[in-house]
């Protein structure tokens, strides 16, 4: 059966962001080590990317590793980085087949050299693709992103490149990692946690939030469809009254 029939193609979220959470608990439930969960999480990533491609979603942004995740046990961090490298290698073909452009946000320089190189290579080799933009948030922290933007803008003010009066939302936007992405329309977090964990604080100002009590490795196409249908049944008022919208 086609899962997509109930989705209104004219009202798709342009930008979906996902906090892929719950790999560790998924593994623990099965009496396995946390890294087992991360390995299975890759399958869910592949499936989510494929579903979004089929649906013609323009932008998909996945929270894969936060600035705070560096504080995890060394072995877990190493495993996550290893999984990143091998997945990028494996997926390049699929990205090109499906016209996906890979993008990354976060402190990419802080990643292990091998991971940063692999990432750079796949980004380069998919840069001509014109379909979905898939953004991986890696060593990403929203506060760090804002701090860097404030620093850069301050330097420009100090050097008389811009004046303080010029600083508006558009200028702030151009100094964020996400400068070439539209605002998030739908933010999905798995695992039953109801928090943002330092993800895209500026960019989700008017996003619709959707929390689902399923661990990331179990997140399926049907869950994504449910989230989109739920999103489509909401009224996005952006501060206006309901009457003004009609
Ligand atoms: C999400 O799953 C993956 C990353 C943060 C890299 P977790 O590893 O946070 O799994 P839980 O939340 O501990 O179950
Ligand atoms: C958020 O998950 C980061 C990613 C999904 C990559 P965490 O598991 O790190 O978040 P907290 O610590 O529970 O808030
Ligand atoms: Mg977690």
From TrEMBL:
**Residues engaged in binding substrate:** 22-26, 34, 38, 66-68, 70, 72, 189, 195-197
Q: Which GO terms describe its molecular function?
A: transferase activity
Catalytic residues?
A: 21, 69
Q: Which residues bind Mg(2+)?
A: 21, 208
Highest taxon above the source species? Bacteria
Role summary: Catalyzes the condensation of isopentenyl diphosphate (IPP) with allylic pyrophosphates generating different type of terpenoids.
Q: Which keywords fit this entry according to its UniProt record?
A: Magnesium, Metal-binding, Transferase
What is the protein's species of origin?
Croceitalea vernalis
Write down what this protein is called. Answer: Isoprenyl transferase
Checking InterPro entries in the record gives:
UPP_synth-like (IPR001441), UPP_synth-like_CS (IPR018520), UPP_synth-like_sf (IPR036424)
């Amino acid at each position: 059966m086609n899962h997509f029939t109930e989705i209104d193609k004219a009202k798709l979220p342009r930008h979906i962001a996902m906090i892929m959470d719950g790999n560790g608990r998924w593994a623990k439930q099965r009496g396995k080590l946390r890294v087992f969960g991360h390995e299975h999480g890759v399958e869910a990533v592949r499936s989510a990317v494929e579903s979004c491609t089929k649906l013609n979603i323009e932008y998909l942004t996945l929270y894969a590793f936060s600035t705070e995740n560096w504080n995890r046990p060394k072995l877990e961090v190493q495993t996550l980085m290893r999984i990143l490298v091998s997945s990028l290698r494996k997926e390049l073909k699929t990205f090109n087949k499906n016209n996906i452009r890979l993008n990354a946000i976060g402190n990419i320089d802080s990643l292990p050299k091998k991971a940063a190189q692999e990432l750079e290579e796949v980004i380069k080799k998919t840069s001509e693709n014109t379909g979905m933009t898939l953004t991986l948030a890696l060593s990403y922290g929203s506060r760090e992103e804002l701090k860097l933007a404030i620093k850069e803008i301050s330097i420009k003010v100090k050097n008389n490149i811009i004046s303080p009066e010029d600083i508006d939302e558009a200028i702030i936007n151009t100094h964020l990692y996400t400068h070439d992405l539209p605002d998030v329309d739908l933010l999905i977090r798995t695992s039953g946690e109801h928090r943002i964990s330092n993800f895209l604080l500026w960019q989700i100002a008017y996003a619709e939030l959707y929390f689902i009590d399923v661990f990331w490795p179990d997140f399926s196409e049907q869950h994504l469809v449910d989230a989109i249908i739920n999103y489509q049944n909401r009224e996005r008022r952006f501060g206006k009254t309901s009457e003004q919208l009609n």
